[in-house]
Amino acid sequence: MTTVPFPVVDEIARHCLQEEEPETVHIEVHLPGPLDPPRLRKAFTEALNRHPRILVREAAGRWYRRRYEWELTDQPDVEVVTFGEDGPNTLRDARTSALAEAPPLSLSPPIRLHAVPTAAAVTADADAAAGSRAAGAARVGAAAPDQRRDAPPTPAPQGTVLFLTINHTALDGPACLRILATAAELYGGTDNAPTAPPTRPAPDTPTPTPETPSNWSRPARVAPGTPTPGNGNGMLVAELPLPHRPKGSPYTVNDQLMVTTALTLAHWNREHGAPPRPLRITMPVDDRPRDLSMPIGNGTRLVEVPFSPQELTDPDLPDLLRRTATRTRALKSLPRPQLGHGATLLTAPVVPVAWRAALTRGLRRAAAPWTSTTLLSNIGRIPYPLDFGAEAGRAHAVWFSAPARMPRGLTVTTASTAGRLHLALRWSRALLSDDDGARLRDLFEHHLHTTEAGP
Predict the structure, then answer these.
(1) Which residue from 10, 85, 183, 248 has the highest number of Cβ atoms inside 10 Å of its Cβ?
(2) Can you give the pTM of this predicted structure?
(3) What is the pLDDT of residue 154?
(4) Residue 394 in this model has a pLDDT that exceeds 70
(5) Distance between CA atoms of residues 226 and 434, nearest Å
(6) Distance (Å, rounded) from C-alpha 419 to C-alpha 416?
(7) Is 363 left (phi over 0), alpha (psi -120 to 50) or beta?
(8) Contact between residue 219 and residue 277 where contact means Cβ atoms under 8 Å apart
(9) Residue 90 and residue 112: Cα distance in Å, rounded?
(10) What is the overall mean pLDDT for the chain?
């Protein structure tokens, strides 16, 4: 049996697993038409075989081993694709399961696909909130159809929603999306090759790097709202218009989203009486190709974008957007290990992995006050058509959500499909409630609008 040592990201994640808050990535894909179950199961299984690095399980080993290892398998150990029936709470229950139940690492592959037919039109606000089963069923509050954050209902009454649940110890959202794109091509017979990424124009003149808060200062925490009894994560998904920006702007939509997130959290903290402190927002950067050669696994590196309290109090938005663009450009260009040099040193196989696990968990607790305020993962424009053929059609909405464990307690994930922005807010129930999530969504929408310029 072929084995592969855990990379740095996988090992750190494996050390810090908690049953109370599973490390899952949720992907939700809305299609306008129906899918044939046997045909989908066959296509997805073949897609797994075309990306064999996903067919892994954690190899058993003695306590004194120096590394965790992935064991590559020829076929899945379990049935990966399941199907649900349409019902009044189907979407809510599927989201709840995606947050509460991580595919086990002991069975290959650590990913599950659940297909749900939708017999009635689904509003793009997606019935607002979902949470962990451990905390009980989440309140579902669909926004009224005439509110501006809602898109028109899905036109086809026989659509399908695909829910992918990923154990984040093994792989990330972009890698899973690559596998789904392969399955779509095998199912529908249409080309699902990725589109070229948008180019970012270089500034005409070098822009000096603005002064930034010290990374040694403790960043702001998200102020507690109304914690919900129980464990796990809550989540809210919403569809918003993509923000406009002037042609040739030195900043991108990603920079607008970064500023929006910072302004939203600063606003939230002021509302809850938290003293002003610098914000640091973790941003994943993914340099992998999107074609069939894309490495499957956890392939993003993390950088932290800082904001001072002065920048976020009565800000000069054009200047703040330019400053943010300069910072993100500089951070993306710096060569850096995925989790920094410290993580590389911490995972060096010089002592038994069980000892390193205990040390990692202790350091994580000690470093909690210096953990970034939140994580903003902007997938950007979905690079694949996700076209499942004439009957099922092409995806018109795709949501992602990233784990939201404490001490951050909140993550913001965005993607764009069909000219719309798909936002997922995910939070720890030890920090926020569903009502708090709805308030944060409203603040995000408000501040996103302030970053806009006319088309």
Answers:
(1) 183
(2) 0.89
(3) 42
(4) yes
(5) 9
(6) 6
(7) alpha
(8) yes
(9) 17
(10) 87
**Three-state SS at 198:** coil
Q: Name residues whose C-beta falls within 8 Å of residue 80's C-beta, 6 or more positions apart in sequence.
A: 44, 45, 48, 109, 111, 112, 113
CB distance 435 to 252 below 8 Å: no
At 450 the pLDDT is 94
Lowest mean pLDDT among 207-221, 226-240, 422-436, 437-451: 207-221
Residue 202 lies in a domain: no
Complete edge-to-edge strand list for the sheet that includes strand 56-58: 3-5, 69-72, 56-58
The region that residue 326 occupies, defined by phi over 0 for left and psi between -120 and 50 for alpha, beta otherwise, is alpha
Residue 432 pLDDT level (bands cut at 50, 70, 90): very high
In 3D space, the residue among 412, 124, 423 whose CA is nearest the CA of residue 268 turns out to be: 412
Q: List all residues 6 or more positions away from 296 whose beta carbon is below 8 Å from its beta carbon.
A: 51, 53, 54, 171, 175, 178, 179
Would you say 232 and 26 are in contact if contact means Cβ atoms under 8 Å apart?
no
The mean per-residue pLDDT over the stretch 137-165 comes to 54
Dihedral pair phi/psi, residue 390, rounded to 5°:
-65, -40
Overall number of domains in the chain: 1
Structural domain contains residue 206: no
CA distance 449 to 243: 7
Q: Which residue has the tokens 């073949």?
A: 46
Q: What is the pLDDT of residue 205?
A: 46
Does residue 145 fall inside a structural domain? yes
Assigned token pair, 101: 């139940």
- Give tens-digit pLDDT for 155-214: 445 899 999 999 999 999 999 999 999 999 999 999 899 987 766 655 554 444 556 666
**Rounded to whole angstroms, how far apart are CA atoms 434 and 412?**
15
Domain assignment present for residue 445? The answer is yes
Helix-, strand-, coil-residue percentages of the chain, each rounded to 5 = 30, 20, 50
Q: Which of 45, 4, 75 is nearest to 179 (CA)?
A: 45
- Looking at residue 341, what is its pLDDT? 75
Q: Give 355's contacts (C-beta < 8 A, 6+ positions apart).
A: none
Structural domain harbouring 252: 3-196+212-450
* pLDDT on residue 199: 64
